Amino acid sequence: MHELTLAEIARGLADKSFSSEELTGALLARVKQIDPQINSFISVTEELALGQARAADARRAAGETGALLGAPIAHKDLFCTLGVRTSCGSKMLDNFKAPYDATVVAKLAEAGMVTLGKTNMDEFAMGSANESSHYGAVKNPWNLEHVPGGSSGGSAAAVAARLLPATTGTDTGGSIRQPAALTNLTGLKPTYGRVSRWGMIAYASSLDQGGPLARTAEDCALLLQGMAGFDTKDSTSIDEPVPDYSAGLNGSLQGLRIGLPKEYFGAGLDPRIAELVQASVKELEKLGAVVKEISLPNMQHAIPAYYVIAPAEASSNLSRFDGVRFGYRCEAPKDLTDLYKRSRGEGFGAEVQRRIMVGTYALSAGYYDAYYVKAQQIRRLIKNDFMAAFNDVDLILGPTTPNPAWKLGAKSSDPVAAYLEDVYTITANLAGLPGLSMPAGFVDGLPVGVQLLAPYFQEGRLLNVAHRYQQVTDWHTRAPNGF
Ligand code: GLN
To answer: What pLDDT score does 267 carry?
Structure first.
C-alpha cells in the first residue's frame, strides 16, 4: 500500500479496496520500520492518526466523499499542531506543544486527512541540507551518504522513501522545490498569500509560503486544493478564488510560450543538469510549447539580497524566543539578562545564531540603509525583471539547483557554499511568484529537478505543465533502491 500515490489512495478508499484505518496502520508500521535509516520524522502521532482514520472511515460510511478523506499526511514540524510537539527542528522548541492548529493543518484535517506525524527540518527552516536540525541530519533515500536538501528535508525524504504519498513543506528561499529536486519529487511553492501562514512558525514573513510535496503533479493539485484559500487570520493572505486544480491538469500546451533565462545556463551549473533541462524542454516542445530565450538581468544580485532580507526578518521573528513565555529556558539564571542570554545561546544552534547576528547587524542604525534598504531595492528590480519577462512568455523554465545532492557534511563548514545552491529558487520568493520543481532525470544516480515559474496565482498552469510532462516521462515514477 505504501507505493500508492494520493490519487490512487483516493480511488482505493472510494471503492472500498481498503479502509483509512488499514492504510494508516500499514503506513505507521512502515514509518517505524524504515524511518530510523533516514530520520525524516521528528514525531510520529500514532494515536492521533488512528483516531482520525477511524473518524474518516465513519464519515465515508455516512456517505461523505472527497479525495483527501482518510488519506495520510505529515506536516513539516513548523506547522502548529494542537497538543503535538511543534519543534521547528530546534532545541528551543523541543518542549513546545502547540495550543492550536495552523490553518493548513486545520484545513487538511477538516478535509479528512490523517496526520501521521511531524517531519524533520533545518532548525527554524534555515538551511538547504537538513543538517542543522536539533534532531539530527536527514538522509537522502537515493544515497544515504547524501543530503536530501532542506529545509523541508524530512518532508521530502519521507515521501521519497515511500513512507507516505505526500507532505507539507514551507519555502522561504527554495525549501520545498530544492529538496523535491534532490529526492525526485514534485514540489510546489504557491504565490505569496495563496496559502495561509497562520500557525506556521515564521522564519522570514515576507518570503515564507507553505505548499505540497508529493511524487506527482496530480497529487500536488489535490493537496494544494486542500491548503489554499483566503484566511482572515493571516493579514497577507489574499482573497482570490481557488480554481479546481485537478480539473485543469489536462489542458493543452499548444502554443504555450516557455522562456529560458540566459543567466540560468552560465558558470556554476553542472553541465549534466543543463543537458537534462534541455531534454525536458524538448519534451514540452513535442507537446506544443514554443521556447524562447529571455533575460533576468538582476538575478546575480538575488543571493546577496536574500541573505540580507531573510536574516533581517528572522532576527525580528526569533526575538520572541526569550526563555520567558515558552520554549527552552536555561538552568538557574542569575538574573533576567542571564536568562535571555543563556536561554537563547543554549536553545539556538549555530546557523540560527549566525542568521540572527547578520540580520541584527543589517537592521542596525547606520547599516539599515546600506544593507536592508539596498536589498529591498534589489528585490524590486528582480520583481520587475519577472514582470517584463512574463509580458513575453507564459512560463519560465530552468534547473531547480545547480548541482545534485551533495555529501552529508560537505558544505557544513562553509555556509556560503550552501547559500549558493539557492541561486535558482530564491528569486521566486523575493518576487512572491509561484514555482514548481519536477523530476527530470539523474546524475550519478542522484535525482535532478527542473523548475517552472509562472505569473502570480498561476499555480494551475504549473501543475498542468508538470502533469502533461509526467504523462510522457517516467522520471517521477522511479523509486530509490531499497525503498
Ligand atoms: N536555503 C534557504 C535558507 O537557508 C531557504 C530556506 C527556506 O526556504 N526555508 O534560507
So the answer is: 85
